[in-house]
Amino acid sequence: MNRNHHLTVALLTAVTALPALAQCTDTELYTFTDPDGSNTLDRFGSAVVIEGDTAIIGEEGTNRTHIFLEAGGQWRRSDILYGAEHNVELFGNDAAFDNEVLIVGAGVDSDFCNDPNECATGAALIFRRVNGIWFTQAKLQRPFYLDSFNQFGHAVDVDRDTAIVGASESVNGVVIPWDYNGQIWIRQDPLEANDGEEGDSFGRALAIDEDTIVIGAPGDDDNGPQSGSAYVFTRTGGLWSQAAKLQPDDPQASAFFGSAVAIQGDLIAVGSSGPSDSSPGNVYLFTRNNGTWTQQQQLSPAGGQVGDGFGTRVEMRNDTIVVSALWDPHAGTRAGAAYLFSNASGTWTELAKLVASDASAEQGFGIEIALDSQRALIGAYQAFNNGGGAAYLYDPLDPCPCPPDFNQDGTVNTQDVLAFLNAWSNGDPEADFNNDGTINTQDVLAFLNAWSAGC
Fold first, then answer.
1. 28-400: which CATH number, 3.40.50.10490, 1.10.10.10, 2.130.10.130, 2.130.10.10?
2. What is the pLDDT of residues 123-171, one digit of tens each?
3. Which residues fall within 8 angstroms of residue 109, CB to CB, at 6 or more apart?
């Protein structure tokens, strides 16, 4: 018999005896916490932004947003932005940063109401950094025609000189754009769904990239209660108009499609965090071709469980997508996790599962996520037993080392055994698993030991 046959017998025997193995799990580069100490209800990590040497973390419970800078591999807090200085509360419930412009949402605008139990209208503050100094540029407030329970300010985004703010509970829901003309921010006409209905929650999630905006409406009931939709608006000649309504190929009630959205060029990602009684959640990818959007791929978590809330948040940058599963129970009820996906030749593949090194039940890991070109930042607003929060930094371009993931698809399973068998039988250099310069049965034993241990 040839050595390929011997190896086949050995590997098949091992595969039969060993359990299926889990994904490899990435490790943290850094953990951010409030330097002043964090207590119950502070919600440090309620908003997160990462861009180069700058990390921005909201702490809505203390009405503050923290700015951290990295120098020489060390992070330090350089500034604190205070909501009280702008007559707002719950400052730091969402944030976005682009081209030195920062927008921060606030859940309560005290110019209209002092008691968050009596109203739910907020504001958004715009800051600009010039030569390392943060200046307040504008306070974006709800138009007079919106009622007092509109959730204005709970979802914000900015791209260059355009900012958008959602008011998802204003009857049918509305998103307001503002444009910067070089001196002031000017409110534009509101964006509304052309078939919107009360309870759609249009504006619960939103994202902008140049002349395209995508807006989630997870309460839309086209395909059953809370089946959800997402709407695409495009700008031509300075005017925004609805260009498309997105729904998945497999719509269902209580899917909350549109609970999270992200956009990059001609690619849109839409989170669908339910149904919580029958699915771990999904993320759907849509591509634009000649102005038409079509579903390209559906992302689901390997090993996900029903009710994980996968798709609660989604972010993408370049060839990386990160998706939170806010209710993942890996370390207790609703501990939370996030999944990293990478684009290889047009197909998105799960690469790693991100969890906190100090994970615990009810941690809220994944309540907010952010990406830059190199790293991912994950908020966990209840990271510690005393209720204090944290934000965890990862390097998605350098995921966890996992030698037994031989085909590098992010999961250790029998496909890796087959890939190793093929490489070993062909005498490929990568089959020298123990790195002794010789490809022989010792490499088989080394691979099997690593495969059985997993990552």
1. 2.130.10.130
2. 999 999 999 999 999 999 998 888 777 889 999 999 999 999 999 988 8
3. 87, 88, 121, 122, 123, 141, 142, 152, 153
